[in-house]
Write a structure and sequence with these properties.
heterodimer; A: 223 residues; alpha/beta; six-stranded parallel beta sheet; 10 helices; 43% helix; B: 786 residues; six-stranded mixed beta sheet; five-stranded mixed beta sheet; 32 helices; 8% strand; globular
């Protein structure tokens, strides 16, 4: 199947007739209340298992008003919430969202500003500033570090991460995320080039070594 | 140690043992019927059973701990000439050659069987029944609108009163029979037939006592010749046990197991039905287990060995099935079932130490049968539930989960007391009050999607034009969709009526020609009433009708409603033309059909149609009384008939091509539920499970990758709790094999619902790229080997 994405006006007709579901429009416009009603559909399941609702993105801090409204709806019904964020936001905005949720999972992709800039297109000063104050705040947080072979897996980076986390919260919980290629199919579907093509998930032994290194800083490491 | 012994037994009796058909039982029964030709039928049956038990070749396999086989070798199905002479004769040359479940027969034995079975052509149950089924029902069977059960085989799905057997022994039951025989007053005319039945039951029970004694002799003989002191000790103990049970009440765990096992064997020998249930095994066995475990007589390892060897012995029994049936029931399924957990008659949590040991024993035995039905209820012990989930993870296909809060009230609606209702045991999906119910599932199956095809076309099959059903009007003339829905109900009623008409006659034939004096004596209240179970001696009687292809029918209705009535994108004529040509030349119509709402996505548009079909079906079925007393009850389950009905049906408006299998049980069409497992559960819960008195089957697939950590296993327990909160009758989880994943790689459209876990995430398998898919396949393979 060929598609000229330049000419696409999102009419969605191709989606309707595609028999193999190869074409999909991702995302839809919802109000916070509508999203709340949708989340509530599974309430029976996550109430039973002690779970709740996680706002995972895109990037939740880029839609702060929406996130705040939604999180308050949940809080009013005693529903446990969590957010996943990269913390790339102005501190007052980040704080406004994070003060309304029960559990914050954030990821750090690289410690050195140059590497971060090269990998993501942005520096990490703001992120580390937010991370530091969050770690110091005593809130329930999980630091996540996606280990991507050949990108951010060298020891200097890991030492810097260990030092940073333990300095701001001794014994902080850190999860090492094993790189996976699930996103590759998504990039293919979007007609975009996948920059990490050919990158293999790190070996178990590499994961283990990285975890050991971080544990030397007294961190609570899961992987 | 335990595991090694069990592994050797598994190899000796199952893995390394090809199935072979032997004529011994057929010959003995034929002789018995000739010799006792003048006796009333039920007496003839008892004498035939006695003769088999006196003369059949006995053996005790190496390392076996319990005596009792149905035939001269393990995995040798028995032949019942009195029930199925004609179909066995017709299939005699096919048994060894068929692709699934081949059963070897030597040329010599074929000749012997041909000669023996030839004498039964007119008098065998299947010969008699063929003449009874009315022509309109026969036509509906040929059109694959319905099937009708019990035509050439005994019908099982029954649990005897094991508690009573263990507490009283056969001697106690014989005394009960004698007391009844002595209670008839002189001149009590109705007593004649009852007396004959009771005499037959007595003869059968005595014959089983004799059978145990023969096995005791056999064990003693082996003890003398086996050449190993340790084995000789085991065999001597076995002989001593067989001289006490099943004749007398069991005293020890081992006696209790031997008593149940020998009787279980005889139930198969008597008439070879499928699905003789082991009932609430962890309940009736518990006192015997507890006493031995507490006194230190029984080690944990020994208990596991004893239990796992019962599993091996169950799987070593094979039932002969015809070659058409084995195409869809491959793997020699006998539908044996053990019930675990649940409540006591007083409503307390009934799970105990033995419940957990049985789960462990099943994993050690690693054989397909018996499968386990675990009864979930609100007070369930969370550790027991965890162990159930850990067993599910093993990928044996069981335990299935049965929900007490949905099922207990069903038994009250079916006439049981509260205590009886809480004491139900499970079939695979059906449930019965143990030892007092003959609920005859498989009395007939009705093809829902094809009923809808007929409703669209004035009763004529759109593919062939044949007038298969009553004239209920042309959909093109209907004012609205509701008229079409009414026409569907009329078609369905007509075919349910045909099943009832035909099955009543078959039911009657079983009472006249195939009573079971032995099994009846093990069931309440056959002795008290002086009637065999076939004649209505059991306390609770039902006949079950299965509705097949619920989701396929609902999806078809949703597509027609949307495309032909609500949006008017396709005319009824065009739809019928598209169906008639199997969508050839109508690809655009098929795409529209494919994209219409589907059951299983928490979308009321399709879900409420499934709910309404189910409701109309339940009302229709339960209005019919059945021959043995009681009434007909509905079930949403298809075993494998959805495959057969699908093969025999043309294209349907859900976009399915002709010949493709219909949906399984009450589950969504494979791959149609695309909103995740919780949405599928919500759709399923819109069906009123409470009124489907015989049960609702729900299969969910899962990848073992989802259950790698203890906390994820515990999460499955919470998932089960939520499903039961929603009021479901049953749920079972099928572990996805690497084979399924490979199929899904080739045909993603049929596997869109498949969820796997990748690293810390879960994803639809079909949406992953090839490399990631391969990685998951490799991981699953690893789990299968480990």
């Amino acid at each position: 199947m060929a598609a000229d994405r330049e000419k696409c006006d999102f009419c969605g007709k191709c989606v309707e007739i595609c028999p193999s579901y190869a074409r999909t429009i991702f995302g839809e416009d919802l109000s916070a209340r509508e999203l709340f009603e949708r989340a509530r559909k599974d309430e029976l399941f996550w109430r039973r298992s002690g779970g709740g609702v996680t706002l995972s993105g895109g990037e939740i801090l880029s839609q702060p008003e929406f996130a705040i409204e939604f999180l308050e709806l949940c809080r009013d019904r005693n529903i446990n919430t969590s957010i996943e964020t990269c913390l790339f936001a102005l501190p007052n905005i980040a704080e406004a969202v994070m003060s309304r949720t029960d559990f914050i999972q954030f990821d750090i992709k690289a410690m050195s500003p140059e590497l971060h800039l090269r990998l993501t297109g942005a520096g990490n000063a703001l992120i580390l500033k937010n991370a530091a104050s969050l770690l110091r705040s005593g809130r329930d947080v999980l630091v996540r570090y996606p280990l991507v072979p050949g990108c951010n897996d060298d020891e200097t980076e890991l030492h810097a991460l260990g030092k940073f986390c333990s300095e701001h919260r001794p014994g902080a919980r850190v999860e090492l995320l094993r790189y996976h290629s699930m996103g590759e199919a998504r990039y293919e579907a979007l007609g975009r080039e996948y920059a990490a093509a050919g990158t293999k998930p790190p070996e178990e032994s590499v994961m283990g070594r990285a975890a050991e290194l971080l544990r030397e800083y007294g961190l609570d490491v899961v992987c | 140690m335990c595991t090694d012994r069990i592994a050797r037994m598994r190899e000796r009796m199952i893995t390394n043992r090809p199935a072979e058909l032997l004529p011994e039982r057929a010959l003995i029964v034929t002789e018995a019927y000739e010799r006792f030709a003048g006796e009333p039928l039920v007496m003839k049956r008892a004498y035939a059973l006695r003769k088999i038990l006196e003369e059949m070749t006995l053996f005790i396999d190496d390392e076996e701990l319990f005596a009792g086989h149905c035939s001269p070798r393990p995995r040798s199905p028995i032949v019942c000439p009195e029930l199925g002479a004609n179909w066995i004769l017709a299939d005699l040359d096919k048994f060894a050659a068929r692709p699934a479940d081949a059963v070897g027969v030597t040329e010599e034995n074929k000749q012997i069987l041909r000669e023996c079975l030839g004498k039964w052509r007119e008098t065998s149950l299947d010969g008699i029944v063929t003449k009874l089924i009315p022509e309109d029902a026969k036509q509906a069977i040929r059109d694959a609108m319905i099937t009708v059960g019990g035509q050439g085989t005994a019908q099982g799905n029954i649990a005897i009163n094991y508690r009573k057997l263990l507490a009283k022994g056969l001697r106690g039951i014989i005394e009960e029979i004698d007391a009844k025989l002595n209670s008839f007053s002189p001149g009590e005319i109705g007593g004649t037939e009852k007396r004959v039945f009771l005499k037959a039951a007595r003869t059968a029970c005595e014959a089983v006592v004799g059978f145990a004694r023969r096995y005791a002799d056999c064990a003693e003989e082996l003890a003398r010749t086996c050449g190993s002191d340790e084995r000789a000790r085991e065999l001597t103990e076995m002989a001593a046990i067989l001289r006490r049970v099943p004749e007398y009440p069991a005293e020890t765990f081992r006696e209790a197991l031997q008593s149940v096992w020998l009787v279980y064997t005889v139930l198969h020998i008597e008439s070879d039905p499928h699905a003789i249930l082991l009932g609430r095994f962890d309940q009736y066995m518990y006192p015997y287990y507890k006493r031995d475990a507490d006194s230190g007589r029984l080690s944990r390892d020994m208990a596991l060995t004893l239990l796992a060897s019962i599993w091996i012995k169950c799987t070593s029994i094979i039932k002969l099935m015809d070659s058409v049936t084995t195409r869809t029931f491959a793997g020699f399924p006998l539908f044996q079932n053990i019930t675990l957990g649940g409540q006591s008659p007083r409503g307390e949590d009934a799970s105990n130490e033995l419940t957990n040991l049985l789960l462990e024993a099943a994993v050690i035995a690693r054989v397909p049968q018996p499968s386990i039905g675990f009864r979930y209820h609100n007070k369930v012990d969370s550790e027991t539930l965890y162990n159930v989930c850990a067993t599910i993870k093993e990928g044996l296909g069981y335990p299935a989960i049965m929900n007490d809060s949905c099922i207990v009230p069903k038994h009250i609606l079916r006439g049981a007391t509260l205590e009886e209702a809480r004491d139900y045991c499970t079939n695979c999906v059906e449930t019965d009050v143990e030892g007092m119910t003959d609920s005859r599932p498989h009395s007939g199956y009705v093809n829902f999607p094809k009923c809808f095809l007929l409703a669209m076309n004035d009763g004529a099959d759109p593919s062939t034009g044949d007038q298969a059903g009553p004239k209920t009007g042309k959909a093109a003339d209907f004012a609205g969709f509701d008229d079409l829905a009414r026409a569907f109900e009329k078609q369905m009623s007509y075919f349910i009526g045909l099943i009832v008409k035909a099955y009543d006659l078959i039911d009657n034939a079983h009472a006249l020609y195939a009573p079971e004096p032995f099994m009846s004596s093990m069931l309440d209240d056959c002795i008290e009433r002086g009637l065999s179970r076939q004649a209505g001696g059991v306390r609770y009687n039902f006949s079950g009708i299965f509705g097949v292809g619920l989701a396929s029918a609902a999806d078809s209705m949703a597509a027609v409603r949307m495309l032909c009535f609500d949006r008017r994108l396709v005319s009824v004529e065009t739809m019928l033309a598209a169906l008639a040509s199997n969508f050839d030349g109508y690809e655009e119509v098929r795409l529209l059909c494919e994209r219409a709402p589907k059951f299983g996505n928490d979308d009321d548009y399709a879900d409420l149609l499934a709910r309404d079909i189910s409701h109309a079906y339940c009302k229709e079925v339960t209005q019919y009384p059945c021959m043995r007393g009681g009434f007909y009850i509905p079930e949403l389950h298809s075993v494998s008939t959805h495959v057969y009905f699908g093969e025999m049906s043309g294209a349907t408006p859900d976009g399915r091509l002709g010949g493709v299998a219909f949906s399984d049980g009450a589950s969504p069409v494979g791959g149609a539920d695309r909103q995740g497992p919780t949405a599928a559960l919500r759709s399923m819960s819109k069906i009123d499970h409470q009124e489907v008195l015989q049960g609702v089957l729900f299969n969910q697939k899962f990848s073992p990758s989802l259950l790698e950590t203890p906390s994820s296993v515990a999460l499955l327990g919470d998932y089960i709790r939520s499903w039961c909160d929603l009021g479901g009758h049953h749920i079972q989880f099928n572990v996805i094999s690497t084979q399924t994943l490979r199929d899904a790689q080739k045909t993603p459209a049929a596997h869109r619902d498949l969820i796997v876990r990748v690293a810390g995430y879960s994803a639809y398998f079909a949406e992953l790229n090839e490399n990631t898919q391969n990685e998951i396949i490799a991981r699953t393979e690893f789990a299968e080997i480990a």
